[in-house]
Specification:
Number of helices: 28
Distance between the termini: 63 Å
Mean pLDDT: 92
Helix content: 40-55%
Shape: globular
Strand order of the largest sheet: 6-5-14-16
Largest sheet: 4 strands, antiparallel
Radius of gyration: 37 Å
Oligomer: single chain
Low-confidence stretches: none
Bound molecules: zinc ion
Amino acid sequence: MTNKGPELSKAYDPSPIEDKWYAWWLETGLFSSTPDEEKEPFSIVIPPPNVTGSLHMGHALNNTLQDITCRYMRMKGKNVMWLPGTDHAGIATQNVVERQLQEQGISRHDLGRDAFVEKVWEWKEEYGSRIINQLKKLGASCDWSRERFTMDEGLSRAVRAVFVRLYKEGLVYQGKYIINWCPRCHTALSDLEVEHEPTEGMLYYVRYPFVDGDGGVTVATTRPETILGDVAVAVHPRDEGNAGYIGRQVRVPLCGRVIPIIEDNMVDPEFGTGLVKITPAHDPNDFLVGERHDLEPVQVIDETGRMNEKAGPDFEGMDRFEARRKIVEMLEREGYLVRKDRHDHSVGRCYRCSTMVEPYLSEQWFVKTAPLAKEAIEAVKEKRIEIIPEQWENTYFQWMENIRDWCISRQLWWGHRIPAWTCERCGSLTVSEQDPDRCEKCGSFEISQEEDVLDTWFSSALWPFSTLGWPDDTEDLKYYYPTDLLTTGFDILFFWVARMIMMGLKFMKDIPFRTVYIHALVRDEEGRKMSKSRGNVIDPLEIIGEYGADSLRLTLAALTVQGRDIFLSRERIEAYRHFLNKLWNAARFAEMHLCDGQRPEKPEKAFLRDHDRWILARRDKIIDEVSNYLDTYHYGEAARSLYEFVWGEFCDWFLEMAKPALRNEEGPTRREAARWVLQEVLGDVLKLLHPFIPFVTEELWHLFRFGEDSIERESWPVADSGFEDAEESRKMSIFQEIVRGFRNLRAEAGFPPQKKLETCHLVIDEGNLLADLKGNADLLSLLTNISSFNFSSAGGQRPSQALTAVLPFGEIFLPVGNVLDVAAEIRRLEQEKEKTEKAVEKSRTKLENEKFLQNAPVEVVEKEKLRLEEGMVKINNIDRNLESLRRG
Ligand SMILES: [Zn+2]
Ligand SMILES: [Zn+2]
């Protein structure tokens, strides 16, 4: 049987290749996985993208890295299960649908809760798979038959089971709490959903008179409208200037409330006058101060951002900003306003609608996190869970050790409605997994369900086990849990990763994953964050359309360095696109020699030449390197070493040196040997590259008829040539230095590469080396385009009228007497020398200048030193060349 496949097209065109193979992979079930006790599992759950989401560069990077590991593990023989899905993204999805309704002039309140939720489901059915399809474009090898949604039936059941159990154990409770509130969206926002931006504002200095005696204190505030809710004035206990006031009482301007002056460590003595007002209902820090000092909060702003009746008749019903203007006016008129200064500060805004967030005191549901956090800290301390890069461990510990209770209720309609029912008759609460029809306590049928839904992170915290069938005891859970790897961005280390660890330990009694890999942030080429307003966003789908998914994947992988951000540009993607062309062209060359005739048999070692042994030894080294890198999640190092090997060694050197043998210029035995080496190395190159660039490698694998099945079902290469990399590379590097040396001399003399030169000369110090090089003279000749090579050992005669260079193991000479105008070349070199001497002098003066040495950055000084050194070497070289030319 011959191995002639269909011919490779001239230019590499990714788009038809990528679509074709992705469809085939799905068809042949390459990505599907079922529990199999014979095989070792490797499981990953995808960080579920928002169902409203569209693939951005962060997703592209995250899923490329996960995919590389999945494909690598499949080739290593693991039973890989990569579970995909989407998150219902409470507020984001509700907003999308609300906006749609708005265009028709309808509000969600017009529809009512049930009809609105119905609408959101309709939206999800229609548009919810967009991001899933985009992940497919990227090549993600998820087991799509396992796709889950955080609000599907199974996951909703898990959410209820967890909520009810936590409630019954006292780990879920209701309480007053200050939360981030959007007065427009009418919902609590998590800290993550608040965007802080610098805002121009004013700092108002307000006089609070003492109750007993004359005088008073001056308090600085940016929010005078909250004065009406003040319950204390606080100073730092070590603020000597103000400590004397502690224990006295003051009267709140305008409303006349009598409040104490207290001490608290929270106060920053450097801010304003060092005296701050405490408004527990309208500031999160003040809320904590209030709790510590047992102060009853006074709420003066309502949920729509308007002043309420507690603010007094002058302000009731007024918008908070309008009230601020009026209060300042009154403070001024009544002599309480001492002064006002321009003061820029950071203001939190709703990430959806940009409305200024209002800290708001309300009845919310909480998870008591401290008891859950304890074990979650231990799991990481004991390295049962490894966080990569390690630097993030500290961040994790810091947060977990200072963890606050988790506010889990959201005032939305879209999400998991809290399974708690209040009895209209006796007021008691029924919390239950099944919808109850009566009050647990008094049996009344008049019960109503809690209006709030759960924070989206509540369901995603269960993702690693809820997606595998929990609360049922399933085969999947037994086989795939704990999962092996979680890849995610640093920004959700707390919101998501930490909570998954807490919930996994609590409900599965085991960690949810063994390794957490924190991926980079993708920035633009100047290191700025990508943003729509800056216009520097690179859209992964556009890139895939233009360059192919393989190019994008390889770029993102190659630019990855643990713990560093990625600076991405189109130029960089283009550079990796060139690599794919290079690979394609190498394959076209190989096709001519491999796909013609029988498959080559493994030759005897004696028929292998130095470069054959070298490339096999290098291939072995690269297999070991790439495997180690991928085992330790060093994606960038793996991609870059493959890139260097394929381009710099396999294509640029090996293929060139193999040409004569492949063209049958070294006899039939050598031709078969060369074909076998080419097949060996190319086959392994495709396998090693496959996790990074799955599409093009699959295409080439089939074109070469290396196998009928997917390349991914092949086993990962093993280093088994038996050749020593150090030994083979030492010989090869000498050979390469000689070739480069002659190429440089040719270039110096101005000979174009295609001009064939007659002769050259090498003086080699070492006997063994001399013999090796003589044996490869035909290849030296081929690669330097010089017909004959004359060798002599150390102390041998040196040719006259030649350009020359010193290499570590001898000298090389390129006689130019017959081909160049020697007199003109001498003139050229003299001029060159003069120019170089001037440059050297300049560098030397600079480096003798103390001021320069002191003031210039280290890199600049180092560069100058290097310039000086190179200049001196060059002068030395020119001198040797001049001497040789004049010797004629
Ligand atoms: Zn909002
Ligand atoms: Zn009742």
